[in-house]
Write a structure and sequence with these properties.
Immunoglobulin-like, TIM Barrel, 2 domains, five-stranded antiparallel sheet, 13 helices, 21% strand, elongated, binds (3S,4R)-3-hydroxy-2-oxopiperidin-4-yl beta-D-xylopyranoside
Length: 468
């Protein structure tokens, strides 16, 4: 019996040993960890939202050791909220603090295991409670606080209007009006007789409407934006006029109630002070300007917008007196028929010209007529003679003074004549001025309020000082 027991015990030991050997495969080495693939975490909605904080949340992954959290005010995560760039945390939530009230933030999460880092999660959008503080160093904030406020405008391109982009942020902070730099001209919109490409124009108008930003329409009729099909039009002159009428009617109708004003005719006067010899003058005769305004007015009224503000817009009228005279003879004529509400002064100026007096005299001609004044395309060149290779401090300050001067002139206008002061673009390097063949501009230039890095220039300070 005893021997038998010993035998059984021996066999059991042997079996256990074999089993153990089998488990460790080759005997001596411990088994390697099975390979787990680090998944992408799923960010869930924020919780505990207050005016200065919220909790970031995510769903935990069993294989993750920790998580990396990014919080940004832009959905492209081009910048980060201080302290929340790749912030490493375990668990499934983290509190984000020190935020501004009424601001929209974005967050995303990555999982981490050892040196391995997963892809970014989905992006969650969250807006803190409360109302955004009004920063008086923002142009529109200061302009809105004036006794007689006016719109501070900027020329835009539809591809800048992506939510969270740097343009979007600057635009919403600083500007209260937009003008399409080219996408609402005839050339991009009119693809043929009665056919249109509305995509870019719609996007611009929608953006303005969605964000409480005024939209100024620019421009229904301009000799430099005639589409090829119309330039090559082979019908009769009256058929040509009907095409122009149809275009004006369709565009004004589409945006009736959505935009507040239109430049109906742009740059109809030549630099020699006579009517510019455009295709419109050639085919429709001297009365074409009046016709265009009448068609715009009729279309707006028919669409139920009886307040559409109609502008005539032109350049260099402050320094070119024959041109100024001719512009105001057109304006007078339109006024007789009650077809015009305002004059747009483009103001593609330089740091030397026009003088304060020249600008005041020019603008005052619209004021005495009781018309609205739009400084419609402001930029101030500092290198019109190509004598500098970078923005020198001296030119920078001269430009600042010139910005201040025109804003001061504008701000002094009577309430009834104020409308908007629009700057022709955001960043210097994206301005139409440098190397412009239209302007015969020989070199680089820095005509706007923001530099290539989107930082404010002294020109911006000059603008603010003009509002004092
Ligand atoms: C310019 C734009 O800035 C350019 O991007 C475009 O290619 C041509 O037009 N007067 C006007 C504006 O009324 O529409 C012009 O804008 C500049 C001169």
């Amino acid at each position: 019996m005893i021997i038998n027991h010993k035998k059984i015990l021996g066999i059991a030991f042997l079996m256990m040993f074999t089993l153990l050997l089998g488990c460790s495969k080759n005997g001596s080495n411990p088994p390697p960890e099975p390979d787990t693939v680090l998944g992408t975490p799923f960010a869930s909605n924020a919780s505990n939202i207050t005016n200065t904080s919220f909790n970031v949340n995510w769903v935990i992954l069993p294989e993750a050791e920790s998580y990396l959290i990014d919080v940004s005010t832009s959905n492209s995560f081009s910048t980060f909220v201080t302290g929340y760039n790749t912030l490493e945390k375990s668990g499934s939530t983290v509190e984000v603090t020190g935020l501004s009230p009424g601001l929209t933030y974005y967050y995303r999460v990555r999982a981490k295991k050892g040196a391995e880092i997963s892809n970014n999660s989905n992006v969650i959008t969250v807006t803190t409670t409360g109302v955004q503080a009004e920063d008086p160093t923002f142009l529109k904030v200061k302009a809105n606080a004036l006794e007689n406020p006016f719109y501070v405008g900027v020329a835009v391109k539809s591809n800048q209007l992506t939510e969270g982009s740097s343009y979007d942020t600057v635009l919403k902070n600083e500007f209260s009006s937009i003008t399409a730099e080219y996408e609402m001209k005839m050339n991009p919109i009119s693809t043929g007789s009665g056919t249109y490409n509305w995509s870019a124009a719609d996007k611009i108008v929608q953006y303005g409407n969605d964000n409480g930003i005024n939209v100024h329409g620019h421009a229904l009729v301009w000799h430099n934006a005639v589409p090829d099909w119309l330039s090559n039009f082979s019908g009769t002159d009256s058929e040509f006029a009907l095409e122009v009428k149809k275009y004006i009617t369709d565009v004004v109708t589409r945006y009736a109630g959505k935009i507040q004003s239109w430049d109906v005719v742009n740059e109809a006067v030549d630099d020699n002070g006579t009517m510019r010899n455009t295709i419109f003058l050639q085919k429709m005769g001297a009365n074409y300007i009046k016709d265009c305004y009448q068609w715009a007015r009729d279309a707006a009224n028919a669409a139920g917008d009886t307040n559409l503000i109609l502008f005539y817009n032109d350049y260099a009228t402050s320094t070119n007196i024959p041109k100024q005279d001719k512009v105001f003879s057109i304006v007078d004529d339109l006024m007789t028929s009650n077809l015009i509400d305002g004059v747009g002064f483009q103001m593609h100026n330089t740091y030397l010209s026009p003088t304060k007096e020249q600008i005041e005299t020019d603008i005052n001609r619209a004021v005495v007529l009781g018309l609205k004044v739009h400084v419609s395309e402001l930029d101030i060149q500092v290198n019109q003679n190509n004598d500098i290779t970078h923005l020198t401090e001296e030119r920078n300050l001269a430009q600042k003074d010139k910005y201040k001067e025109i804003v001061t002139i504008y701000n002094a206008l009577p309430k009834a004549n104020k409308y908007a002061l629009t700057v022709w673009g955001f960043k210097d390097n994206e301005s139409w001025i440098p190397f412009s063949t239209d302007l015969n501009h020989p070199g680089d230039d820095w005509p706007l309020l923001y530099n290539n890095k989107f930082e404010i220039k002294s020109a911006h300070t000059g603008f603010l000082e003009g509002l004092d």
